Amino acid sequence: MDLSFCLQLLLNGVVIGVIYALVAMGLSLIFGVLEIVNFAHGEFYMLGAMLAYFLTMNAGLGYWATILVVTAVAMGLGYVLYEALLGSLHGEGFERSILLTLGLSMVLQNGAVFVFTTTPKMMQTPYSYSNVSLGDLRVSVMRLLALGLGLLAFGALYLILYRTRVGKAMRGVAQSRDAALMVGIDPRAVSRLAVAIGIGLSGLAGAALAPVYAVHPLMGFSFVFKAFAIIIIGGLGNIAGAAITAVGLGILESFVGGFFPLVMVDALAFTSMIAILLLRPQGLFGRGVRV
Amino acid sequence: MARWLRALLVVVGVAALFAIPRVTGNEYVLALGVSFATFAVLSGGLNLVYGYTGLLSFAQVGFFGIGGYTAALLVTERGWSLWAGAAAGGVLAALVGLVVGYSSLRLSRHAFAIVSLSFALLCLIVARDWVSLTRGAMGIPGLPIPAMDLPGGLRWRLAQPRDFYYLTVGFAVVAQAAIYLVVSSRLGRAMRAIKLNEPLAQSQGINPLSYKLLAIALSALLAGIVGGFFVFYLTIVDPSIFDFYYTETMLIMVIIGGPGSFWGVLGSTAVLAALPDLLRFTTDLRMVLYGVVLIAAVLLFPDGVGGWLRRRRIARWRRPRVAPP
Q1: Does B294 fall in a domain?
Q2: Domain for residue B171, yes or no?
Q3: Predicted ipTM?
Q4: How many structural domains is chain B composed of?
Q5: Domain assignment present for B183
Q6: Predicted pLDDT at B62
Q7: CA separation for the pair B276, B280 (Å, rounded)
Q8: Looking at chain B, which residue has its C-alpha nearest residue A275?
Q9: What is the pLDDT of residues A130-172, one digit of tens each?
Q10: Contacts of A113 in chain B (CB under 8 A)
Q11: Is the pLDDT of residue A290 over 50?
Q12: Of B156, B159, B161, B158, which Cα lies nearest the Cα of B21?
């Protein structure tokens, strides 16, 4: 086995894993704070990528401006989503929240198919064809930028959750909604922010990956399915667990993809999820340290 | 409604369904009938799992497609009969359902919902990418006209749409009867108790896991068998048998009909099976419309038609019999 090939696989795996982590952490944050599984989460990833495509190709925005605008728009969408749909569900059944977000996902996904058609689009940026060489290793700049953005978002989320009052409030609500209410934390405000951050992370992931992979309306669908597996493996509601699992899964998938047929890559997330559920139902990192 | 009247209506209804192909040979009507019968099995199974037992499942379409692929492969590659192929498909689907259910239900019903969705998506991906078994995205076209040995030495070739109409409607009647027997028996009462209050049900000596697994396995068995029949009706099986369209349609049928209401779901299935053809003007926007309907139903009308009827009935019982002076 060739060392540089393995390093290449490792690097690709880390990049995709970090992007998985962005989506999965948002999903996990929303579950931890609201006890809602957002089935429409992948569609916001898709919308982020779509918006990035149109801002770059049609509006002529630069790479960094695009990333900023997409993240801001996605956070705005998160606010709207909470105010319009999720906020009205409080304490009223987990199944209803799933059906609601599933309906939203159908509307967004099929609406996107209707408007943009299913033809995949490639997003071109000034850095699209440049590579960085490190010895035998060649990495495209876009992948490195995606990696950097992901790590930046990790850091920002960590700082918000552990170094700000509102982050503390968010962790409090996730631990016990009633107790948080009793000490004067407004669960609605906290939930709204959690949804906004979660959707914002998903949009950012879409924008960061848009120049690496093709953009099309069904991309969110297959992506979120891995995010679900990740949050189960990492422990439902455990954000750090989700991040670690995501990076691990990305690397594992990259290596499996390097040596085995494609179907094994796709089945990997699911079979690991079933195995974890059978052996350690609370997830690798349990619920004790959630959020 | 009096018991005998309801039984009479059921007998008349079933007789009418079987009389339709004699009255009209119109293939369009027969196609609607096959679609209704297929969806009746699927939505009935989902109602058993979600409506009665309270487990939101997205795995039904996976069981349906597993049944379809199993039957198609066994008939074309191994020369099995359609009966045996569809039965094997149903059994395989039920076994898979037990694995999915057992592994995730130990954690929570939240995990079950997520795992069942992942499972359905995985089925689609495996059907597309495991080319050596499923022949990939092209699927297995040109499934042969199946023939069945009937008791009495007769051989039934299912060559006409009408034959498939009899087959699927006949199976749908059997499946509905099975579901009705379960939900109206001790088993069904235990399932409803689990849905309403699981710890309380447990304290009465009910083991929730076994009832949940029973509901999942039965619905998977029925969905798998009907999947086997359905692909031979289409004469092709390809990864689109796992399309999310089926899940969404089933869910809407159950939600609008009223989760946990046997007749409500059957009625909404009949209406909604005919509806896609009324909505034909906009094939592309149909799924968007379904999404909007799902959101609206969940927000405004969560108990569906069945729940509304039940509330009305209870209100009537509560009304005083004698008018106050």
Answers
A1: no
A2: yes
A3: 0.80
A4: 1
A5: yes
A6: 93
A7: 6
A8: B103
A9: 777 777 777 788 888 888 888 999 899 889 988 988 888 888 8
A10: 284
A11: no
A12: B161
Closest CA to B31 of B126, B162, B119: B162
Work out whether strand B155-157 and strand B147-149 pair parallel, antiparallel, or are unpaired.
Answer: antiparallel
For residues A103 and B298, the answer to whether their CB atoms sit within 8 Å is yes
B287: left (phi over 0), alpha (psi -120 to 50) or beta: alpha
Which residues have C-beta within 8 Å of that of residue B263, sequence separation ≥ 6?
Answer: B306
Task: Say yes or no for a CB contact (<8 Å) between A225 and B118.
Answer: yes
Mutate to test the interface with A, among B209, B298, B299, B303 (most CBs of A within 10 A): B298
Using the beta-carbon criterion (under 8 Å), do B117 and A274 form an inter-chain contact? no
Query: Can you point out the beta strands (E) in chain A?
Result: 131-134, 137-140
CA A10 to chain centre: 20
CATH topology of domain A10-121+140-279: ABC transporter involved in vitamin B12 uptake, BtuC (1.10.3470)
**pTM for this predicted structure:** 0.83
Place of tokens 């925005």: A61
Residue B283: pLDDT band with limits 50, 70, 90: low
E strand or H helix at A264: helix A262-279
Report yes or no on B302 lying in a domain.
Answer: no
Question: Shortest CA distance to B163 belongs to which of B255, B54, B27, B50?
Answer: B27
Contact A102 B294 (CB under 8 A): yes
Q: Whole-angstrom Cα distance, residue A95 to residue A98?
A: 5
Note whether B251 contacts A: Cβ–Cβ < 8 A: yes
Strands B155-157 and A131-134, by their bridges, are unpaired
Quote the domain boundaries for residue B136: 30-243
